[in-house]
Amino acid sequence: MSEARLRVRLGMNDTHYAEALVPAATILRLFADCSTEIGLRENNGKEGLLAAYEGAQFLLPCRVGDYLEIHAKVLSRGNRSRRVELHAWRAMRAPLHGENGSRWTICEPPELIAKAVLVSVTPKD
């Protein structure tokens, strides 16, 4: 089965909430970005299109400065579609907003912050 990974640091452009909280929509965007890599590899450089999220769960809040790793894995394929399982793991947790002198926390093991199943379709030529 095809897999992809994406590692990012969340920045100020990823939020508009107080306390530097990052909205769930940002995680969904990262899920879509990661699954797009699979589509590009499998479809000779042609992107797949998001058809649906079968479900998404947000387990822990994220903040600006957190380092996340997104994992995508194809669960199944149809003629022009694929179901992709996605997980977002926090590798490093930023200090709470406004905590001067605090340090980042290395998450050993990484913390599962969100998971979802995405359905992608490839348009006909």
Describe the structure in your own words.
The chain is α+β, with helices and mostly antiparallel strands. Helix content is 15%, strand content 50%. The chain has one domain (3-121): Thiol Ester Dehydrase, Chain A (Roll), CATH 3.10.129. The protein has one helix spanning 24-42; strands spanning 3-9, 21-22, 49-58, 62-63, 67-77, 81-93, 105-121. Strand 5 and strand 6 form a beta hairpin. It is elongated and about 55 Å long. The two termini are 24 Å apart. The mean pLDDT is 90.
> Based on DSSP secondary structure assignment, what is the total number of beta strands?
7
Strand order of the largest sheet: 1-5-6-7-3
**Low-pLDDT runs:** none
CATH class descriptor: Alpha Beta
- Assign the CATH architecture: Roll
CATH topology: Thiol Ester Dehydrase, Chain A
Helix content: 10-25%
What is the distance, rounded to the nearest whole angstrom, between the alpha carbons of the first and last residues? Answer: 24 Å
Main sheet, how many strands, which sense, barrel?
Answer: 5 strands, antiparallel
* Total separate domains: 1
CATH level 4 superfamily: Hotdog Thioesterase
Keywords:
two-stranded antiparallel sheet, 125 residues, elongated, 7 strands, alpha+beta, Thiol Ester Dehydrase, Chain A, 50% strand
What layout of secondary structure does this protein have?
Blueprint: E1 3-9, E2 21-22, H1 24-42, E3 49-58, E4 62-63, E5 67-77, E6 81-93, E7 105-121
Antiparallel strand pairs: 1-5, 2-4, 3-7, 5-6, 6-7
